[in-house]
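Exam review. A common question shows you a sequence with its structure tokens and asks you to describe the fold in words. Practice with the pair below. Do the first one on your own.
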Amino acid sequence: MTAMPPSSNVPPIQGGPAHGASDGARARLQGDSFTYVCPGLESRSCRHAVTLLHTLDASMELEVATEQGTTRGQLVMVAPLVPRVLRAGDVPFVMVDLEPSHPHYRRFRSAEPPAGALCLDHLQLTALRDIGNQFLHLRLTGRALDKAVREAVTQLALAFPQPPEMDERVRWMMNAIDQEPSRSLCDLAEELSLSIEHASRLFTSHVGVCLRTYSLSNKIRYAARYMGRGHSLTEVAQMAGFVDSAHFAKVWTRCYGRPPSAYFPAEKTRMDEANLPGWIQPPVE
């Protein structure tokens, strides 16, 4: 891993905000995580999730540039809410996004790397690379893929400290938002007999993101269910609970570095929908 000096802002991508070989990419929704394998991509983004990136070729490295510096490696973790540029235009890689509701999200988040990203090559754990290669070539899909990703992430998480036990009131707020992303902080605080300020501080101190950010991450996760299904962006925005398609496109582009039109057509991203749990699948139309 090479750490570069910090700069005043995130370095630009030459030739535009995002580009790369997204055609041929594969994706799998796993409820509290999202696995994406790609032949190569360069993008500018700022995710709610903890992001794990692993090159599929042991001879290649990818690069993540943030305002604080640049991290290079084969296995890189990027902290949530960190604006970053991913430079992997000709580097096949697998990405696993861990949402704030993921059981190991707080473990990884506790690292708080000074550069916003952390090279994990020293751990010498290559399970994600093996999983990504098998997923790319359809040798590992469905529930078997889900299980393999969970086990690989758990193994990586052991390198980070166990966070304190979560307050049951925070867990209740997370579950309430999971069921109804439009729930307001005012409603949640009232049900818990807390002031809005106390509920907000409690939630942020335990989860690491504010309630509004958590709600947005849920809407994005819900929208992702409709990738590759032929819906218009207006329809997806409405079904996911966004104000309109412009707001949806803005939030999605900020999270994934490219507009929804680069992901949602079936020819752009092939979704693995084998044996998805019913609560992940979109409603039958």
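Now try the second one, then compare your answer with the model answer below.
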Amino acid sequence: MTVVLIMICIVLMGIIGIMITEVRRINRELNYINAHDTNAEVTTNTGWPLFSRLAQSVNFSLIKTRAARLKQVEQEKQIKQMLTNLTHDIKTPLTVAIGYIQLLDKNRQNNDNHHQYQRIENNLLEVNYYLHYLMDFNLLQEKNAQLSLSEVDVSKALEGELFNYYDDLTAKGLEMTINIKPAVTIQTDKTLLERVFQNLISNLLKYADGQVVISLQEKDATHFQITFKNQTARPLLANRQSPNRFVTEDVTQTNQSVGLGLDIVRSLITTLGGRFRIQHEDGYFVVMLTFRYQAG
């Protein structure tokens, strides 16, 4: 009797050992499948119905998950393409409409319709303002897949964008103080970096009042900092519902406008590997961008 019990125990221990080994092997296969982009499926080395059914169920779930992922990727591509087409389709007639209203205002015979023309133009420019952010969002989605890295002279890039907006900044009557350290270069995506500067300068044109300070200076031995600092009567506040969104409070109107430009800038800077920080101090709104110097 004792011998029989010993034999039964040995057999049971063998069965349990095989089961544990099989479960561990299936777990390793699942970990590999989850960690890699592969169409592999879970297999079983035993002919036991229990493990065969387990493998079939796991593989069925894997197939459904892959199909859902492929469907999601395809839907995202379609949405991106739709947004790209939409922004380009809106951009052309919007630009034409702005040009026509400016021409009508310039050629008017009297001052009776000036206010109406100005209001229409402002509304069209507002639409154009947010359309640019939608285009930037599309660009950001494309660049997230792969950055086009090259050696970029950040100093020249910033100076170039300021020169492009010189007439607009002058027309707004801003008191500009610019202090840019020359020949600061890093490996980055030039297109995204230029979009960062364009968005921040656009925010100056929309919200700045009085003095503006723009600087590019060394922060420490391994980092440099770009600062956009401007006076404003409309402090930018963190949205309580979403800490990553910003709201500009317009003291001359009852409505509030979402600071989409700063959302875009934050995302662009994160994609480029930099740090983004904002603060409001003594009537000044400050945006600080920090980058690491190029190694070597």
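Model answer, second protein: The two ends are 79 Å apart (CA to CA). The first strand starts at residue 149 and ends at 153. Full marks require stating both points clearly.
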